[in-house]
């Protein structure tokens, strides 16, 4: 019933490539425009939870990714100084059994490379050095034209804006608006295990502390440890959303923390620094033959480890809608299906910032102690909240439809 045979995608990140692959598997001809001169991902680790893995499995990528993964044994929250556990939820085999899909840690570059290769094998056209300037409706052909800065004009039935929080597509659709700095910055980096002086637990670990938190977990079969160190800051003035970080400044910011943190940072030789930005909820995700996906329409704070997962879910749902409905119906159903879930995850992520950073002083510590008590004596309460996130299966959203 779908009325789309050709699609253009702005952005070859994880969301853009996931969308391209999902569409190509529906028999749709896809061209992806990427402004960079080569394919690749800046960043480090990703936590790919079972909800995202169900989509990657459906796209045929699970076996191709398997050699790159690390399987964490628990999701934990620990005290920044004592190391005491406020939360310890089993992952590993427990997650695979409960959610029918694994919880994996992947290097962002590995996932991106596997996605790119799968897209090429599926016939997706990947254009590099293809910087988007604007789009316009082609009323004569009832299509959308996409204009590139080198003078090329591409045409298709639909344009997908998967070009991130600073999306050119979103800006043209809804008007210029600067992202909102959320008062936090994140240092990110990877340290080879061979250079560590301490043992890092095989968990997805959040270290909670006053005004900041630290995340650590293994990558690539346990050969590397990924870290994300988030600090509240009001003086960010850089126009760049990422830049080379000062490792010594990072070490000073987390001085006096538990040895697993301080010893890990002692072995860090480089880091990137991100400003954490957000946007107000958009009035719409689509207009005529243009639709948004991933960070372009619902940027996530990284406090639920769901940014990539939500883009991957978006990609699958959008492809299914386009294959089943007329274009107008497909875009409406896509937004109606995805917006409540992504909004809820955004809210949960924002709430976690206060928890991890012990907002409220003594009250903040009391909230963590309460979490510790619930985790110990009523674990089903904790599990039920995770079930809503990890138990979701985007691949079955449309299984009952004709």
Automatic annotation (TrEMBL):
The lineage of its organism: Bacteria, Pseudomonadati, Pseudomonadota, Gammaproteobacteria, Oceanospirillales. Keywords: FAD, Flavoprotein, Monooxygenase, Oxidoreductase. The keyword Flavoprotein applies. Pfam families: FAD_binding_3. InterPro entries: FAD-bd, FAD-dep_Monooxygenase_BioMet, FAD/NAD-bd_sf. GO terms for molecular function: monooxygenase activity. Residues 6-347 form the FAD-binding domain. The keyword Magnesium does not apply. This is FAD-dependent monooxygenase. Its cofactor is FAD.
């Amino acid at each position: 019933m779908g009325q789309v045979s050709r699609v253009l995608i702005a952005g070859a990140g994880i969301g853009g490539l996931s969308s391209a692959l999902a569409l190509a598997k529906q028999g749709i001809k896809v061209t992806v425009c990427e402004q960079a001169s080569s394919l690749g991902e800046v960043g480090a680790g990703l936590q790919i939870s079972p909800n995202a893995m169900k989509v990657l499995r459906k796209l045929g990528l699970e076996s191709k990714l398997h050699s790159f993964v690390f399987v964490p044994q628990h999701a934990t929250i620990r005290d920044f100084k004592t190391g005491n556990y406020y939360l310890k939820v089993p992952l590993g085999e427990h997650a695979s059994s409960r959610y029918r899909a694994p919880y994996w840690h992947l290097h962002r570059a590995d996932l991106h490379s596997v996605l790119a290769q799968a897209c090429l094998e599926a016939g997706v056209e990947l254009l590099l050095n293809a910087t988007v300037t604007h789009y316009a409706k082609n009323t004569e052909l009832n299509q959308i034209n996409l204009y590139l800065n080198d003078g090329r004009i591409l045409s298709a039935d639909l344009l997908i804006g998967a070009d991130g929080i600073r999306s050119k597509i979103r800006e043209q659709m809804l008007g210029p608006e600067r992202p909102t700095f959320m008062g936090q910055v994140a240092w990110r980096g990877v340290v080879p295990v061979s250079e560590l002086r301490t043992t890092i637990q095989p968990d997805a670990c959040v270290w909670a502390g006053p005004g900041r938190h630290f995340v650590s977990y293994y990558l690539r079969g346990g050969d590397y440890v990924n870290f994300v160190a988030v600090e509240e800051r009001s003086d960010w003035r850089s126009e760049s959303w990422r830049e080379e970080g000062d490792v010594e400044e990072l070490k000073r910011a987390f001085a006096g923390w538990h040895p697993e943190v301080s010893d890990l940072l002692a072995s860090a030789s480089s880091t990137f620094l991100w400003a954490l930005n957000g946007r107000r909820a958009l009035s719409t995700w689509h207009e005529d033959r243009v639709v948004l996906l991933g960070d372009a329409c619902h940027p996530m704070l990284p406090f639920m480890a769901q940014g990539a997962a939500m883009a991957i879910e978006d990609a699958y749902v959008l492809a299914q809608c386009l294959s089943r409905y007329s274009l107008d119906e497909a875009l409406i159903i896509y937004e109606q299906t995805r917006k409540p879930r992504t909004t809820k995850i955004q809210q949960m992520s924002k709430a976690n910032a206060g928890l991890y950073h012990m907002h409220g002083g003594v009250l903040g510590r009391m909230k963590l102690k309460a979490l510790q008590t619930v985790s110990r004596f009523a674990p089903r309460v904790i599990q039920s909240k995770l079930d809503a996130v990890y138990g979701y299966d985007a691949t079955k959203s449309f299984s009952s439809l004709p």
